[in-house]
Amino acid sequence: MSASQVVVVGYGMAGARLAEEVRRRDPEGARVALTVIGAEDHPAYNRVLLSSVLAGSLSPEAVRLHDDGWADRQRVDLRTGTAVRRIDVGSRKLELADGAVLGYDVLVLATGSRAWVPPTDGLLDGTGTPADGVAVFRTLDDCRRILTRARAGAPVAVLGGGLLGLEAARGLAGRGHPVTVIHPVGHLMERQLDAGCGRVLARTLARLGIAVRLNVTAQRYAPGRGLVLSDGGELPAELVVVSAGVRAETGLATAAGLAVDRGVLVDDELRTSDPQVRAIGDCAQHAGTVGGLVQPAWDQAAVLADLLTGADPAARYRGTPVVTRLKARDVDLAALGEVHVDVDEPDAEVLCLQDPARGRYAKLVLRDERVAGAIVLGAPDAAATITQLYDAGTPAPSDRLALLLGRALPSGAPTSPADLPASAVVCRCNTVSKGQLMTAWRAGARGASGLAAATRASTGCGGCAESLQGIADWLARVDPDEEPAVPRPAVS
Questions:
Q1: Which residues are paired to 333 by β-bridges?
Q2: Of 198 and 63, the one with more pLDDT
């Protein structure tokens, strides 16, 4: 029986993870012959860590997901710097920009999303690209453009007070730029935060040199001068960074006649309206998915790999409970589940603790004694415990105040790294489990720094650094004398 010809359009985080998951289940390529097409010239990279590149704490090379020899080792026909021109679902073929035509048995769309630029006069030039002095924040190349154009100490305006906008603002402020965030809503990160936490977050950012202008939009941009705002004010800015949201890349799907709404519509098997075409990641629209986050894409990749290789024909994607973390130096913020619940809602127990002077805010939403949602700013211990409760679905401790202060442990919680199951996720940013850390240790990675280098654990928001150190210390005790193999960076 010949291998199924699977073509993946998109070599971002979703497409790269799918290729890894397929090869974990089919290492010799006996069941799946895999071709991956990427429009960008360079290897796949971790978009979650781009704010660290912007801040200068990580190099572009450090966020790469694959080395130069990965495709050959994994039996993947990888074509980078290549765009897909057209998909013909009738003949199951796709045409590339260089004229090549590829056939497929199964096509996977992992085309991601693109930055949305608001209709502000002057932001785009006559060709529809960002004008001189304007840059979007979405890709590794965007980071390079921002750093090239940001003259040392020059004022910067960031359009958008969402997750990515604030990460960009913090990175540039850390490089010494006076930064002002322009946000059209009444508080920051309104999708993930309530108004109370938004206010505390704005105060925290102000102490870090980031000014915030709320309920205003940019009306006009003048190169070299700055922005004219909707309230009549002017904001000097030598560089404007646009992070005002994203839109799913659905152009190929629409042209091919596939069903598209905000994204390419998919079912629990990640099938589009054509059963031979699947879609995952930011370009896909599934009822249980929150767009714009990486965890759903990786969960979808695992399910689809099970289906494509036959490893688990019953695998289905049912949605992803998402924990959002703001990855910005000196700001520890986590939000999960139901956050927009009022304290007087009859079917929920809602607790709130505010300490604006010290940059702390905690909101906890409980239903049937279990965590249904939370916002935690400036209290990493509380965030870790609440996230663990949320993931496990176990009852919350009766001492709610101790939980909000980070002084309570979940009932039956592991008291040491030895008690954690191998499947326990230690690093959410890079989806690194305890089992992966143990595998990296046995391959020669030593200490917390060695494990971080091999798996990228703790290189995102840094919130798992203490847990990583605990696991490294435990491994050193239980496996101290094993002769290490030659270390090789692990695929995260």
A1: 326, 377
A2: 198
